[in-house]
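Ticket #4471: complex job returned nothing on first submit. Input attached below:
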Amino acid sequence: MARQLRVNGTIHDLDLPDDIPLLWVLRDALGLTGTKYGCGVAACGACTVHIAGQAVRSCQVALADVWGPVTTIEGLGQPDALHAVQQAWVDHQVVQCGYCQSGQIMQAADLLARQPAPSDADIDAAMAGNLCRCGTYPRIRAAVHSAARALQAG
Amino acid sequence: MARWGQIARRTFLIGATAVVGGVAFGVWQYRRDLPNPLTPEPGAVTLNPWIIIDQTGVTLIAARAEMGQGVYTTLPALLAEELDVDWHQIRVIHGPAAQAYYNAGLMSHALPTTDYDRTAWQEMMVEAMSILPKMIGLQVTGGSTSTLDAYDRLRHAGATARETLKQAAADRLGVPIGQLETREGQVIAPGGVTIRYQDLAEDAARLDPPRQIDLRPASQWRYLGRAMPRLDMVEKVTGTAGFAIDKRLPGMRFATLRMTPHLGGVMRSHDATAAMAMAGVDRVIDLGHGIAVVAQNTWIAMQAAQAVAIEWGPAPYPDTSQEMMGVIRAALDAPANSKLRDDGDVEGLDTQPEDRVITAEYSVPWLAHATMEPMSAAAHFTGDSLQIWAGSQAPGFAEAAAAQAVGLSAEQVQCHVTYLGGGFGRRGESDFIVLAARVAHAMSGTPVLVTWSREEDMRHDFYRPAAAARMRGVLRDGAALALDGRVAAPSVTRQSMARMTGSAPPGPDKGHVEGMFNQPYAIPHYRVTGHLADLAVPVGFWRSVGNSFNAFFMESFIDEMAIAADRDPLAFRLALAAREHAPSAGVLRAVAEMSGWDGPRAAGTGRGVAMTHSFHTPVAVVIEVAERDGAIALRRAWMACDVGTALDPSIIEAQMIGGLVYGLSAAMMEEISFAGGVVEQGNFTDYDALRLNQMPPVEVRILQSTGHIGGVGEPGTPPAAPALANAIFDLTGRRIRDLPLNKHLRFVG
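Support reply: We reran it on our side without changes. The output follows.
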C-alpha cells in the first residue's frame, strides 16, 4: 500500500507490500545500496540501520512497522564529511573487503550514542552481532575507542 | 576514456601508446600463443596499460580483484613509487577484463607447462587466492619465476613513464634530461619551472620510451615498505563502494535462484503457478538444475522462489557426511596418488626397543567459504552483447563461460569487475556469473541483478574438502627420527581443472598434500603420501587450500611427537627447523620471545604453538587459552611471519590476523555436513564464525629475511587450527584430532 518513509532526511512515497523488509526497500526501491544483505535472519548485522536513532537489523523490520525516521550509512556521513566513527575507521585502516562495514559502523555509532566511553566489554557486547569474515575485529575495537575519544573531545 | 590500441610488431616489455588526450604506459603482450614470439604478425601484440595520463590526470590500473587484501593500494604503490605522483591524487580503476593481463602466450615462457588454458588458469588462481605479493605471480605450482618478475615489472612501468615524461619536458624546454626532477605529478626544471604530467602526456606518446632504467633501491622507497592509506577505505566506510550486489541500471529487475540441493543433480519437474500468481513476479525461468525468479525486487523474488513446487533428481554422491568420511578413510588404504617426500627410509627403518612409536588419525569436515556478500552478479543481454558486473577473481574465464552459455563469442561479452564482498577462493569460480548471464539471456533487453540468498550460497559452494590423515612417528633420544604421513581427500586440483578446462590433469596432486610434505623440518626419515578420494561433492579453493587441513594434521602430530619425546613443543620444532630453514626457525624464535614462551604462565592457562611454511612465507602462531565456567576462551595470540620484503606492513598485519581468524573460525565451529544428500547448514545461525567478543588480542611481527617476496593472504590460516588444538591440549590434556573443536568442547561466546 502507499505510504511515506523518511530516510536520511528525505521523504519517499512508496507503494510496496506492508511486509517487505526495510532492507529491500532501501536497496531495491530507493537504491540506497550502502546497507547490505548478508543473511536475512538478523545473524550477521550487515543490514544495520538506525530507526529513530536506534540500531536495528533492517532485514527484520517490515515496512509497515518502521516507527521513525531512518538513517542509513549514506546519511551518517559523506566521503568529504565523515562521521567521527567513519573517520576513526579510516584512521585505523579497519576495512578489508568492506562488505560488513556499513553495519559495523552503524552499530558502533549507536553504541557511542548510548555509551560515550565504552569499555572493551561494552564493545564486545554491542558488536558481537556484527560478523566480519575478514577478521577486522582488533582494528574495530581500537577504532571504537578512538571514535569515543573524538566524540567526547567534541 | 582511453582506447586500448592494438600495436603491431613491438616486442619489448614496457611500452607507451597514444590515447585520447594523452599516453598510456604498460606491458606489451602477445594476444595469442605465437609460433615465434619474436616476430609476431601484425595485430598480434597489444599493450596492457598500467598507467594512463591524459587531460584528467593520472590513472593507475589495478587489474586484480580487490577482495580486501589491499591490491587496490599496493599495486598502485608499486607504480607510484617510481612514477612520483601524489598519493592523494591517484585514481585507480580496474581496467578491462583481467584476461588481457594474463596472456598464456606470455606465461607459457615462464611456467613449466605449455597447456594454454591450464597455464592461464593457474595464474588466475594464483592471483585469486592470495594477496598482492603472491598475486603478482607467486610460484604456487613451482617452477614459475613470475613473482619477482611482475613485482619488478610494475615498478619498471612507473619508471618508464617517468623517464618518458622527463624526456618530453627536456625536448620542450631544451634542457638536458639529467637536470630534470619529478615530484608529485610534475616535472621540475632548473629555476623552478614545473610542467604537470598531463601537459606532457601527448608529447610523451610520440617518444620511444627508454629501455634501460635502474629501479630505485628500497632505501629510497617512499610508498613501498610502509603503511599507505588504503585507496578503497573512504568508499568502504561511507557505503559508496560498488559491490556487484549494488549494481543498479535503469529498468533493472531483481532475480534470485533456487537450485537443486542435490549438487550435480537435475530438476525433474517444477510448477510455478503459485509463484507467478504473486504480485511483482515477472518470470520463472527453468535453468535445468533449478529455477530463477525475476521480480520487482529481490525480496519478492526470494518469496516466489520458495513458492515454486519442485521435484529434484538424486545427488551423485553418498547421502551423509558419515558415509563420505568412510570413503575418504578407505582411500587411506588405497594406492597413493603422490609420494612427494620420501627422505631416508621410512619403510626399512629398524626401530629399537627404546624408541617411542606413536600413531594417530585425524579428520576434518567440509567447509564453506561463506563470504559476507552472497554470490551475486548483474547482467544485461541485448542480443549481440552481454555486459556483466561481478566480483570475479577470474573475469577472463567468466567471460568465456558466459559467452558460451548465451551463444555469443567471447568478444561480445564484457565482465566489469566490482569490489568483492569477500573472496577466499569462492569467486574464482564462474558459476554465479554464468547463471546471471543465463537469466539475462532469458530476459533479453532487461538488465537483471541476480542475488543468491544466504541459504543458496551456503548450499551451493565449492567446498573445502573433508579430509583424513593417518600419522606415524618414531622418536629416538628425544628427537624425531621418522614421520610417515598419509593424507586422503577429494582432489581440488583435479575437479577445478576439469571444470575450467574440460579435463583433469594426471599425475601427483601437490595441492592435496601441501602443508605436510613440504614442511621445513629436518626429520631423517620423512615420507608423505597422498590418496585421492573419489567423491562427486563440488570442491574448490578455500583460503590456503590443502594447507588448511594438512597443517592441522602435521602440526598436531608434531606436537604429539614432542609430548611423547617429553620435549617442549616449541623447542622440539625449533630443533627440527633450525637445521632445515633459517627463516622458519626465525619465526618460531620470534613467537617464543613475543609470548614469553619460556617464562612463567598465568595460572589456569594453556598455550599451543604451530608453524607452517606455505606460499613462500613461514608463519608461527602461539595461542593462549583459558577455561571459564567449563568453556574455553581465547586469551591472546602472537604471530610471526617472514615475508622477505614487506611492501605494506599495515596490510600484511591485517592479512595475517584475517588469515588467523578465518582459520580459527573453521577450527572452532565450522562444518558443512550432509544428510539425505543435502547440505544441512544454511545460514550463519548454523555456520557461524568467530565474533568480536571471542576475538583475542593479536600481536604480529613481520620479519624480512627470506630474500624473496612471500605471500601474506593465506599463510596466516594454516597454523591457526593446530595452534589452538595444541593450546587446548596444554590446558586440558585432551588431544582433539577431529574438527570442528566445538563438537568436543564448548567455547566462551
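Residues 23 and 59 of chain A are 5 Å apart (CA to CA). Closing as resolved unless it happens again.
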